[in-house]
Amino acid sequence: MATPHDEVLAAQEAHLRGLDDADERTIFDKIVAKEIPATILYEDALAMAFRDVNPQAKTHFLVIPKIRAGLTRLSKATEEHKTLLGHLMYTASVVAKQENLDAGYRCVINDGVEGCQSVYHLHVHVIGGQQLSWPPGV
């Protein structure tokens, strides 16, 4: 399991390497294209959900748009992304039910270097399966 410090370093490295460029193919693009393996939990025409390779809770999966369409970060969202963003949250709910997270879960979107974003392909972390604490961290 990665430490919070590891995640900060990964976010800083991604930012410094310019990986927030919408033209750069991400690991998530490769998962969507089935070029690299992932444990896919859900897939439809717009979204895909798969297990996080570095889980931070008993259950931890990601929900991504299959086509980024410039949506590298939440702060880059425009009016044209409203429907897709709603679909991602709906997908998170569908998969959370599938994963038996009836007692609750948390949805997190990291945005930019200070938000610890290390993959510039918008993604929703869904974590649960255990009692979570608050605040989630600083």
From TrEMBL:
Q: Name one GO molecular function term.
A: adenylylsulfatase activity
The taxonomy runs:
Eukaryota, Viridiplantae, Chlorophyta, Mamiellophyceae, Mamiellales
Q: Give the coiled coil ranges.
A: none
User: Which species?
Assistant: Ostreococcus lucimarinus (strain CCE9901)
Which residues are the active-site ones? 123 (tele-amp-histidine intermediate)
What InterPro entries does the database record attribute to this sequence? Histidine_triad_CS, Histidine_triad_HIT, HIT-like, HIT-like_sf
Motif Histidine triad motif covers 121-125
This protein is called HIT domain-containing protein
Q: Where is the HIT domain?
A: 27-138
